[in-house]
Amino acid sequence: MEPSVDPSELQPLGEYDFEKNFSHLAARKWMEENWQKTFIFSTIYLILIFGIQHFMKERRPFNLRAPLALWSFSLTLFSIIAAWRIWKQMAFLLLNKGFKRSVCSRSFYVHPVSKLWMYLFALSKLVEMGDTVFIVLRKKKLIFLHWYHHLVTTIMSWYSYKIMAAGLAWNAALNLCIHSVVYSYYTVTAMGFRVPKPIMMLITISQIVQMALFLVLNIIGFSWNNDKECQTSWPVLIISFFFYITLLALFYDFFRKTYWSSTKKSKQN
């Protein structure tokens, strides 16, 4: 069933032909038929990464600097463009309709500017699982936070797009902005440049802030779920609530162990 959208939320905002011609109805139909495959993809993902990790145990790490730089730069470029297009509709709603409509509106799924990028955002979560392949092939440390984050995000994003959940646009807008920075960092480091520690700390802090904001938006979703125009599936609200809490705790723990512990050790030495 197509969600009702206020026509005043669909005003032209300088869309391109390839955006306008994108069929959100076909995209949603495809997602309705295929979102369950994320469970299969997730199983393959886990088998693959831990299988490669076991295979690489007695082998020398691959360098992969050039492919990693190209991979990270491609995701940086996508994140910047998608963030720009989704924020265009987000800014319009914030300025003309207010914060509540920016959270509750389903216009992001059908607006000529944002509809393509909302779909690509959901699909990109599957593509981003490729980050982990580079980690295990290069024999870098694979932490629980990394693969857990990729796995659950993919399932949640596909299902949320399938039901055209309220609030996913804010998730996409914030996440794409953070990923623009994160993948820029990956690109620079893959090219062999050293990034100053304060900048690395700021990137992790921005990820912690992102999770805190997602949690706030989730709590807002609970309080507005009785509103007919702002309803979201209860399973999505409950599962995402616990997901964001665990991610917030995991990112905080990563920051504490990576930066606070090392700072204390350097002071003691």
TrEMBL record:
It is a multi-pass membrane protein. The chain crosses the membrane at residues 38-56, 68-87, 116-137, 167-186, 198-222, 234-255. PANTHER family: ELONGATION OF VERY LONG CHAIN FATTY ACIDS PROTEIN 3, FATTY ACID ACYL TRANSFERASE-RELATED. Keywords: Fatty acid biosynthesis, Fatty acid metabolism, Lipid biosynthesis, Lipid metabolism, Membrane, Transferase, Transmembrane, Transmembrane helix. Its EC number is 2.3.1.199. Belongs to the ELO family. This is Elongation of very long chain fatty acids protein. One of its GO terms (cellular component) is endoplasmic reticulum membrane. It comes from Catharus ustulatus (Russet-backed thrush). It comes from the Eukaryota. One of its GO terms (molecular function) is fatty acid elongase activity. Signal peptide: none annotated. The gene is LOC116999574. GO terms for biological process: fatty acid elongation, monounsaturated fatty acid; fatty acid elongation, polyunsaturated fatty acid; fatty acid elongation, saturated fatty acid; sphingolipid biosynthetic process; very long-chain fatty acid biosynthetic process.
